[in-house]
Amino acid sequence: MQVDVITLFPEVVTVPLGASMMGRAQERGLLTLRVHNLREQGIGKCRQVDDQPFGGGPGMVLKPEPLFSALDPLRTDRSRVLLLTPQGRSFHQRDAERLSREEHLIFICGHYEGVDQRIVDSCVDEELSIGDYVLTNGAIAAAVVIDAVVRLLPGVLGDDESASQESFGASGLLDHPHYTRPAEWRDMKVPKILLSGDHAKIVAWRAEQARERTRQNRPDLL
Ligand code: ADE
Predict the structure, then answer these.
(1) pLDDT tens per residue, range 174-211
(2) Pocket, ligand 1, Cβ cutoff 6 A
(3) Cα 83 to averaged position of ligand 1 atoms, centre (Å)
(4) CB 2 within 8 A of CB 146
């Protein structure tokens, strides 16, 4: 998958996505990540990328010309352009699944008060928010979305099974609890059923635990 990111803070994207699974996905050619510094498209000697909002109010707005200059050479008829903003639609696992089937994603990272609406109206396919809180910088949100999408690409996770059995997988529930050795630690024992070797009973116990956990932590998912 080809991913382009337009941001004022390239390292906010390149550092986390250069480590661990995302780093390996890049080394193995499963992810081609290109991060573009919006400042390079800034206007004039000061490389201006933002300006005061028409109509007044606090903060600055990203100007349309630098964003368009960064975006235009990247776009083809096979790319999907995403804007990260708290005003976007909530990003869910099903969006990660849908986006993992795209060939080319382009992320525009909002900053300050936002981006000039004319860029949204003319160039953006969808606006996404990663949650009901405000970050300093859409690049943090882009790194989150890219990780969630790229880990679903075939070959990125070590064991293809693990993407389907986890929270928000086919069941739509949270994941069940996990235990590993030792079977007893600080007087706390692993549930006997997990040591029983009875696979059917283990599957039923895990399903029940997943339902219970979802009821407690995320009843909205039921
Ligand atoms: N930029 C700032 N806050 C954000 C959020 N919650 N989601 C996506 N982009 C953002």
Answers:
(1) 999 999 999 999 999 999 999 999 999 999 999 999 99
(2) 84-86, 110, 129-131, 133-135, 138, 141
(3) 9
(4) no
